[in-house]
Design goal:
By secondary structure, the protein is an alpha+beta fold. It has helices spanning 20-28, 35-58, 83-111, 117-126, 128-137, 146-149, 152-166, 201-221; strands at residues 4-10, 13-18, 62-69, 72-78. It has a 4-stranded mixed beta sheet with strand order 1-2-3-4.
Length: 222
């Protein structure tokens, strides 16, 4: 944009501020003398852009720099991320703002109304106005981040469904058993051995002799 000042770098990311950032801070504060609100506006915008930059780095893309200007900020980067990565980058600024809100809220509860209007303006900018700016930024209209950010959830759902379809299924082991009631089976009949069939020759000879002696005794009585 030109006419910007380099403030330094953070996490290896060059940071610049355009002169229109001063106009943005004045508009943000209602064009009143409010250094706390001005500082809060610049912090929120800077945190938002650094959030984009960190997600750009996390998706293995290259961050060229961030700039704070009057109508927000800009994170310049290069690369070719996946659609999921691009949607995540779009969310990066709001995620960073939510982190700032979580850190600032306890301070706002403890120190708001403490007698310093500048501190109250700063804490209000980091909490209430921070949420307001995040909500506006998520409106799904270009050039706002919401035009790309809301694609994240359908992409995540599609990835989840694809992972479920590609997951190996556990083998089903089928154990086959008898179907229906068991059939009644007839008892097995074991034929008894023939009489004397299980006696030794000696016993058979003894029984034969006893029988012969008994016959002889009957004949003698007769």
């Amino acid at each position: 944009m030109g006419s910007s000042w380099k403030l330094g770098s953070l996490f290896g990311v060059p940071i610049r501020m355009h002169w229109t950032a001063i106009v943005g801070a004045l508009f943000f504060s209602g064009f009143r003398i409010a250094p706390g609100a001005w500082l809060g506006f610049l912090i929120v915008i800077l945190v938002h852009e650094l959030g984009h930059a960190l997600v750009v780095k996390a998706t293995k893309q290259r961050v060229l720099g961030v700039e704070v200007h009057g109508y927000g900020g800009h994170c310049e980067w290069s690369g070719n991320p996946t659609p999921l990565g691009r949607a995540s980058i779009a969310w990066g600024g709001v995620w960073a703002q939510m982190g700032l809100f979580v850190l600032a809220l306890p301070l706002a509860v403890m120190f708001s109304g403490g007698g310093s209007s500048h501190l109250d303006d700063l804490l209000r900018a980091l909490t209430v106005n921070n949420l307001f700016l995040a909500g506006i930024n998520l409106i799904p209209v270009r050039p706002l981040d919401g035009a790309e950010a809301w694609k994240l959830f359908p992409l995540l759902r599609a990835r989840w469904n694809a992972s479920r379809r590609s997951a190996p299924r556990r083998p089903v082991i089928e154990v086959k058993g008898p179907v229906g009631a068991p059939k009644a089976t007839a008892p097995k009949v074991v034929n008894p051995p023939a009489q004397g069939g299980d006696l030794s020759p000696e016993l058979r000879a003894l029984f034969a002799k006893v029988a012969a002696d008994a016959r002889d005794a009957r004949h003698k009585r007769n």
